[in-house]
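Task: sequence in, structure out. Protein: site-specific DNA-methyltransferase (adenine-specific).
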Amino acid sequence: MDVQRKKTSAEHSFHTPLRYPGGKGKLARYVANVMEENGLCGGTYVEPYAGGAAVAVSLLLSGHARRIHINDLSPQVHAFWRAVLDETEELLALIHDTPVTMANWKKMRGVFSDAEASPLELGFATFFLNRTNRSGILKAGVIGGKDQSGPWKLDARYNKHDLARRIKTIADKRSAIHLHCKDARQLVNRLAPQIAELNLVYLDPPYFQKGQDLYLNFYEEDDHAKLASTLTCLPSRVRWMLSYDAHPRIASLYKKFKGFEYTLNYTAQDRTRGRELIFFSRGMRIPKLAGSMRAVNEAA
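Result:
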């Protein structure tokens, strides 16, 4: 197929309107390389832990994927993506008409926790907090602090024109986007039989360490083990890749699969460099990733 090429990895990173801990948009170019190397372009791509869906959206817009499935168990994050796809103009009007102020930040915090809020209201509140909270963490405090005395103010990541452009671009592709709000393992098992249509599943579960500090839905250790069991039992024709924060327990869970450890720049809270792991289903060709890489489980 004719795949529209992107010039830099940065261009793969800024299609989603949401900010997300871990910055996986930086991996979009690499996931595209994986698809090219394994002849997986032009079909269906699945992201069971979508969050900001940076990789999925990038692959759809670049032509590497013809259809994408994005899934998030959080009702708030799901409500945002539902608004993008089904109530686009109403969402854009809220973005345009709502001043980015501390008064509205406090109001959105209330809406975010309101069980009676409409899906559109909940989706917009999620978006507002994501763009005004530190590192996009929905549990975190506001950029600049409540007294707005910090060097950055709450609107530092809230360029209305650019964010509206991103939302419109994604909404124009709505016919190719399938949205879910399910447990990730259940979704994978449900879609796995669709082998002919499903080209690649990319899983980016909550971090093994500090997951409860970053995500609305975090995993206990048993949940991580159950995910490993699910992937191990998938039919061999299902192609998947998985990324995690580097930890001996994760390396042990996936010791039967080839993978590597690499360095990732984190922006959550403080700018730091961390180590991450990526694993692949059996039989996949693994392209090189720019930067520091160390192979793990080479004999798998």
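The chain has two domains: 10-73+182-296, 78-170.
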